[in-house]
Design goal:
Layout (H helix, E strand, L loop, with lengths): L2 E6 L3 H12 L4 E7 L2 H11 L3 E4 L8 H9 L6 E6 L4 H9 L4 E4 L4 H12 L4 E2 L1 H12 L11 H5 L2 H10 L5 H8 L3 H15 L4 H10 L14
Parallel strand pairs: 1-2, 1-3, 3-4, 4-5, 5-6
Length: about 230
């Protein structure tokens, strides 16, 4: 079955373009569009989309507030935030609100389509430019980190901490397995176990938590777990 997508943007022409790009794919279906956060919530309740492509700045309820409410709903869709704004605050706010991905509107159409498919499959998606900004913000102290007394640390087993540290560097399950000397399937099991302990929906949110907890640092200087 095709992935059900709704597009939320207050600019009619932008919304039409996004719908055309996404709807041109055989495996993606645009099931609705909205011009603000309130309309997006009402539409999502009716259409039950798999993915919501969400703008940030809109009149009335903005995209960040709508994202937080959507991801907290009984049947939450995956949210891909798409915006022209590069400020770090939007990135962090969107991801902490539960977004599964964040891309800039000047991304290539092929990258947008790939991102929709990625988040629909349950993975997380950040454009390279956004990832660099995320790491830079931690490096410059714009985002607080290193909270060793956080109770979430005590919930992780030593091996789960190992996996989280390497996950935060962007390694795949197979690459983490090579580093730790365990099978990729075992790594996947550890990832699936640590995500709910951290209150994270996916790898991107787990990466943010790793930085928050001081387990990961920019430049690869990650904190040893033993």
């Amino acid at each position: 079955m095709a992935v059900r997508v709704i597009v939320v943007d207050d600019q009619v022409m932008v919304r039409a373009g996004l719908c055309a790009i996404i709807g041109s794919q055989d495996d993606l279906e645009v099931v609705g569009e909205a011009g603000d956060g309130v309309a997006a919530l009402e539409l999502a309740a009716r259409a039950e989309p798999d993915v919501v492509v969400m703008d940030v700045r809109m009149p009335g309820m903005d995209g960040l507030s709508a994202t937080a409410l959507l991801t907290a709903s009984e049947r939450p869709p995956r949210v891909l935030v798409l915006t022209t704004f590069h400020e770090d605050a939007y990135v962090f706010a969107a991801l902490r609100a539960g977004a599964s991905g964040f891309m800039l509107k000047d991304s290539d159409p092929a990258d947008l389509v790939a991102a929709v498919r990625t988040v629909a499959a349950g993975e997380a998606m950040l454009s390279p430019a956004v990832t660099r900004r995320l790491i830079d913000a931690f490096a410059t102290g714009q985002v607080a980190s290193a909270r060793p007394d956080d109770p979430r640390l005590a919930m992780l087993t030593p091996r789960e901490r190992d996996v989280l540290v390497h996950l935060a560097t962007g390694l795949s399950n197979a690459e983490i397995g090579e580093v730790l000397g365990i099978a990729a399937g075992t790594v996947k099991a550890h990832v699936n176990a640590l995500l709910p302990k951290l209150g994270a929906r996916d790898r991107v949110q787990a990466t943010i938590v790793a930085y928050d907890l001081g387990l990961a640092r920019p430049g690869g200087g990650n904190t040893p777990t033993r």
